[in-house]
Amino acid sequence: MIALIKYNGGNVSSVQNALSRLNIESIVTDDPELILKADKVIFPGVGEASSTMKVLKEKGLDTLIPSLKQPVLGICLGMQLMCGDNEEGNVRGMGIFEVDVKRFPPEDLVPHMGWNTLSNLKSPLFSGIEETNDVYFVHSYYCGLADATVAVCDYILPFSAALQKDNFFAVQFHPEKSGVAGSKILNNFIKL
């Protein structure tokens, strides 16, 4: 079973639809027991960091997610909330990845929206993915480069397009909106 974490955020249905296109069944839930029993967990994200962390704390998901032992994939805001301090709403994330989240400078060049390439691919998530393949980004905040960086994108400055530590994986881009490459990345995660 694949559990998609429910927290009243944005792209949960888009991720579920992308999985359905791959013939992968999933459930959308905020039930800790179902999340703990899942084979894989996806933490999708579209929204604002501080209000999302507030909802996660109210549901106890802020402590549950870092304790998970199965493969977990954070997407976009999901990735950012798996990190440390976040400039969006000056909130502390879950600290799974030791990197902070900052706003892109300058103001007139955000959001980073559209297709971009990845480089320095170092994860089983990217098996069969070429550095010439484009993926789709929509974000105004970024995770800096860190020991956990397993893919880099360059927009204004180089940033972590993907992070990996132990059973935790995270991508800044939206694989569910990234065509063939995104489907391959989601399928690679499901096969872990």
Q: Can you walk through the features of this model?
A:
The protein has 192 residues and is α/β, with parallel strands linked by helices. The chain has a single domain (2-191), classed as 3-Layer(aba) Sandwich (Rossmann fold). The chain contains 6 helices and 13 strands. A 7-stranded mixed beta sheet has the order 2-1-3-4-13-12-11. A two-stranded antiparallel ribbon has the order 5-6. The chain has a two-stranded antiparallel sheet with strand order 7-10. Strand 1 (2-5), helix 1 and strand 2 form a beta-alpha-beta unit. It is globular and about 40 Å long. It starts with a strand and ends with a helix. 43% of the residues are buried.
Give a topology summary:
Blueprint lengths: L1 E4 L6 H10 L4 E4 L2 H6 L2 E4 L5 H10 L2 H7 L4 E4 L1 H5 L3 E2 L4 E2 L8 E3 L8 E6 L16 E6 L1 E3 L5 E7 L1 E9 L2 E4 L7 H13 L1
Parallel strand pairs: 1-2, 1-3, 3-4, 4-13
Antiparallel strand pairs: 5-6, 7-10, 8-9, 11-12, 12-13
Brief characterization of the structure:
With 192 residues, this protein is an alpha/beta fold.
Sum up the structure in keywords:
globular; alpha/beta; 27% helix; two-stranded antiparallel sheet; 192 residues; single chain; 7-stranded mixed β-sheet; Rossmann fold
**Highest-level CATH class:** Alpha Beta
Strand order of the largest sheet: 2-1-3-4-13-12-11
Radius of gyration over C-alpha positions, nearest whole angstrom: 15 Å
Beta-strand content estimate: 25-35%
